[in-house]
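During the first year of the project, the team set up a workflow for recording each protein of interest as an amino acid sequence followed immediately by a discrete structure-token representation. This format lets reviewers and collaborators read both layers of information side by side without switching files. As required by the reporting guidelines, we include two representative entries from the current panel. The first entry is reproduced here exactly as it appears in our internal archive.
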Amino acid sequence: MSSKKILFLAGDYVEDLEIMVPFQALAAVGYETHAACPGKKAGDLIRTAIHDFEGDQTYSEKRGHNFVLNADFDSLNTANYVALVIPGGRAPEYLRLNARVLEIVREFDAAKKPIAAICHGPQILAAAGILKGRRSMAYPAVQPEVVGAGSTWAEVSPGADNSVIDGHLITAPAWPAHPAWIRDTLKVLGAKIEI
């Protein structure tokens, strides 16, 4: 499986757990994970944000870790990757304004390669125009964008720990869904894990 590469699209203030956990988990089962960001090269850092649910009307936000990118955005070739992962946090809000980011999403979609997006990541899917006629979910505050892009909203469980698959699209509401979302991503990838 080591020749199978997965691309992560991220940027400053990506949600800490939503980049770190799947990046490491997918690498642990044998995929080569690459993270890229517009305007940055391999070896550059992005800052992360930690979003938590502490009883307020919305999530809280704290500074997270530095995350080292290991791929150059400008030289990305989607043909080299078997899947795309889009973590949430604040990064999708501005990444969706980048024309090449949207092209990358459309290229993966046209090739029917798995696209896994979590939390605010579906903002990028909506901006890329790939949600029409599909069932998906996101962080609940993103529901208007997802539905406005033509997607059927999949209900988020009370613990925000569920995921939904629609063809090659895997979406989830937030990091509490990591077990379901990562498992569903591996299922769509056709991965076989022996324990």
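The second entry, processed by the same pipeline in the following quarter, appears below.
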Amino acid sequence: MFSYLIATALLTHFQEALFPDWPQAFSVEKVVYQEKTDHWDLLIFENQIFGRVLALDGVVQLTEQDEYAYHEMMVHVPLLAHPNPKSVLIVGGGDGGILREVLRHKDLTRIIEVEIDARIIEMSKKYFPSVSNGAYENPRAKVLIQDAWQYVKETDERFDVIIVDSTDPEGPAKELFSAAFYGDCKKVLKAGGILVNQNGVPFLQKEELKGSYQNRKPHFKEVSFYLTAVPTYTGGFLTIGWASDKKHKVSEKTLAERLSRIEGSMRYYTPAIHKASFTLPQFMLDCIHHK
């Protein structure tokens, strides 16, 4: 148990447990919900700036006010880079934000989400309805409650894009950063398919960055990262892993044309941001290449 699991009536501040030497604290206006599920210590509270906040095992996963910076970039970068995606596998993503953004692509005919913990979906639908925005009631979405590591190893399905929306490589998510998992992902991707995965904050999680790169490199010809900025992910910009056997070098004009076919408006993603997000700072390049 973490220190935040105190009497809820007395909880006025939440301090994130991810980086002990760099604490991030939120004022708590109200504890909305608290539970120990089969996999997580789950806490939902309200903050004046960020609205409702979801924390698992003492680590912030999303907030109502900045989730779009994560979900839009996780989804639309691979789906707009791919010339004609028809099928998507979502690994994790129980809050429904990834599924919400995927469903905006009307040409997709096969969408499967594999989430290990049904309670995350249930609690997110109840307490964060704007995040999933009805996505779990959409008939195009098939949701499976099981270990995604096992699903990817055993499935006969094939996908154009795999989006791994996992927590950091601890506990249930540890295998989702392994070389074996990335190899299994390669097997279930169609020719020219794209794999993306949440890859932590590189300034503070260099080993995660390096390990993910090394574990994907044997399986894919094109292995890289791209960036997004999520205010509540401590330590600077967030890294998203990228892997494919195809370069997918797409012009800004082509991205804009593809974007015009997507329902609704964006709050973070633009074609220019898409292109620029693959430009990495030197410290990341040094870390990846072991300098």
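For the second entry, the following points were noted during internal review. The chain has two domains: 8-63, 67-288. The chain is about 30% helix and 25% strand. Both points are flagged for discussion at the upcoming steering committee meeting.
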